[in-house]
Design goal:
Penicillin-binding protein 2a (Domain 2); Beta-lactamase; 5-stranded antiparallel beta sheet; 17 helices; 19 strands
Length: 514
Amino acid sequence: MEKRIRRLGIFMMLCFVALFIQLNNIQVIKATSLANNPSNPHVLAVARDQPRGDILSADGVVLASSVPSSGTTDKYRRVYNPFTATLFSQIVGYDSPIYGHTTGIEGEYNSYLESHTRPATSLRDWLVNRTTTDNVTLTVNIQLQNQVAAELEKVDAYNTAPDAGAVVLNVKTGAVEAMYGVKTFDPNPLVSPNAKTEMAYYLGLNPNGGASSPLVSRAFQYGFMPGSTFKAVTSSAVYDHDPSLAKIDYPQTDCIQVNGRVTKLCNYQQADGSYEKCGGTIQVTLPQSCNTAFAQMGIALGPNLATEAQAFGFNQRIPLDLPGVSTSLFPTAADLTGDDPLKATAAFGQGFGTNAAGKSTTVVATALQMAVVVAGIANQGVIMTPHVMQQIRDTQGNLVKTYTPTKWLSATNFITAGAVTQLMQGVVASGTASGVGFPASWNVAAKTGTAETGTGNATGSNLTNDWMVAFAPANDPKVAVAVAVPNQPGSATGAQVSGPPMLTILGDALAATP
């Protein structure tokens, strides 16, 4: 009995020690983080006793503001401009009484937007009230954003709610001039003072908690197989790692044999069921978008193809100043080693599904990623850091912070970038984008893409992801644009589906960019 009492006493003592440690952990070590946690109801309540700073478009329109609240316990509530709320929702985000401020600019720059004490910079500052909020101005202007949205919303897709995305980047600064994804949402119900309204709307947007929700942007948070737009990266890999491949005159053919898991790899399938025949050097095969030629280049490049993809930003988070940016995926050098079918299909932006270990090796890219790729080629191989914040000012108009253009990656050298630019100009002059209608005065460099998804719709038609990427003017680039329209009927092509919106968006972007 005495032994049992001793054991029980030791056990109780250990429990007391564990409780003591946990109490100190909560009350001392984690006290500050818990007190400031945005999910803490007390923090949310205190925040609503103070206004938040405004969020403005590049052309000075207020997109989000705080207004005095009546009939609720909160002194202020967040309001999103009804004329721009849906247009900017995936960039601006929302400041929800229930779900917090973890998305968009509301989340990324919360420390500036919420009420805070301005640092003292002089003796006078210590004698005055330094409580303030800051206003965040974006790089995105309303007119161009609206034009991009209109083009994507009217894409003649076979389904009623296509998932489409587009991004416009300033080549030299990395500024995001427009970024829009279909579908989108209205953030105002998410800041409703009525909790039932807010919760019902959120659950309606996010019924399964998955990527199909409009809360997930098709421009920078969700990717698709890029198809032949990736040939711009493969072409860069040729010049960077094995320039002799650019001189090979690949034979004219419709299909090739590939050792391994596939026996035949073919070019684009035409309406009559036959496959296009193509071949030649890279100066011909990129404008033609010849899969068989690029498959052979991919096999020859091997792991160097993964090295080039990494250099252009794949398999790493693009440092865009917004939460939730999706990482675009490309097979690793280890994945490609000894796997000719994967080398072949990855070279034209598809991949082979999974490797022997069950790991996905499909190439996946966001519209942002492919805009970054062409911006790097346009900017002599240097990729500037994409950003949506232009400047931050306090309530007195004093400048608090401004964005300074910063290099992110040196993807390639200016010689390779120049060579690939000429190839992409050929796509417009005599290749797959020749029928889009770009005026010669724009001097456009472009690449189309039609990726086979391997899935079908209700009628049994195979679906494709239809892309176009472009920059202009090729001799002194100003803007780079990527347009992605996934899950289209197999008879469609990148030029047919993404060409018309690209034509309008690129023209508008050129007109809007100094």
